[in-house]
Amino acid sequence: MDLEQLLNNFCIFLSANKGLSLKTVQSYESDLKAFCHHFKTKQLNDVNLFEYANVLKKLYKPASLNRKMSSIRAFLKFISKDNHLNLDLNNIKNVKTCIKFEQLIDFESLKILFTDTRNGLILLFFYATGLRVSELINLKISDIYFDAGLIRVNGKGSKMRLLPISYDVLDKVKNYITNTRSVYLNHYSKDCLFISKRGKPFTRAAIWKIIKLESKAKGFNLHPHSLRHLYATHLLENGANVKTIQELLGHTSITTTQRYTFVSDEALNKAFKESDYYRE
Question: For the CA atoms of 7, 12, 18, 19, what is the dihedral angle to 10 degrees?
Answer without folding.
Answer: 130
